[in-house]
Structure formats: structure tokens, C-alpha cells
């Protein structure tokens, strides 16, 4: 049984950058629906006793399992997103992630530019990610819909949700403003440091 995880912050803790009303819908409705759907699809399924990560890896790329993959991956992606942000965060990182960004991505300003380009340029729904690639280097990538780096053998470090439900109540069609606000005020560098 897959459970909806608790948010790692109070629902109003991200204001004014993300409103509690957005979290009512994004977490309370969208994320919860992915959990409910995943559990329904796992009834009598061979993967029903597996972890979320094992379910994602076990269904990735299988056209017959696309419904389960999409829902399970969205549960995982959203849980990762809630941990990728936190109140009174963002801005320049410290610790080993700062060194890795300098070494692998050409510095913080270049990283921000690359992440903004990926997040704003994702056509339709999806995600922007900071990942560790198979060579052990940090890289920015984007994925479409429910796709996740886990399905490609890559290690997620941070992510940004760019589905419209993540920002539309607060920013309407201004996705670039939402992305900038997350980067400057909410990116959880402590979480990123724990992932490398």
C-alpha cells in the first residue's frame, strides 16, 4: 500500500511564493489522486508489495503498464518536489553541492540559467531536474509528464514541478515568475546536499 506522505512544512509556510490554496489542490487533490490511483492499479498486481522505486523501474517503458507507471512516478516525483523546496531557502547554495555546481555546471549563475531554461522551456506538463548522471557529474534535465530520472538510471538531486497545477492559482500563465521565485526563495539545498 502506497501512502500519501506528510508535507515537510505547514501548508502556509511557503507563502507568498506558493499559497496554501495551491497546496490544497496540488498536494491535497493532485498528489493524493496519484496515490489513490496507484493503489487501485496495484490490486492483484505482481508489483503490489514492491517499493515505489521498484514499481517505477519495473513498469518504465512497458506500454501495457503505462497507467501504473504514470501514477506511481507522479507519487514519487511529487514527494521529491516537496522535499526539494522549503521555507526561507533558495539563493546560492553552500556545502558540497556548491562545489559540485561550480565544477560540473560552471557556477551558480550558469546553473540558474540552465535550470530556468529547462523549466520554462518544458513544453506542456513536466519537470525540471538537477541530477547526477551516469558519469557522476551534475546535470540539468527536463522530463515530460510523469517521466522521472529514476526510469533512466539517473540519480535525482532536486526537482521543480512545472505542471500547471503547481503554479496556476498563484502565477496564472507566468511560469517564468514561478520558476524564479522557487529558485530564489525555496530551493532546499540541504536536501540537495543529502542526495550527493
TrEMBL record:
Destroys radicals which are normally produced within the cells and which are toxic to biological systems. Residues 93-194 form the Manganese/iron superoxide dismutase C-terminal domain. Belongs to the iron/manganese superoxide dismutase family. It catalyses: 2 superoxide + 2 H(+) = H2O2 + O2. Pfam families: Sod_Fe_C, Sod_Fe_N. It comes from Candidatus Scalindua japonica. InterPro entries: Mn/Fe_SOD, Mn/Fe_SOD_BS, Mn/Fe_SOD_C, Mn/Fe_SOD_N, Mn/Fe_SOD_N_sf, SOD_C_sf. GO terms for molecular function: metal ion binding; superoxide dismutase activity. This is Superoxide dismutase.
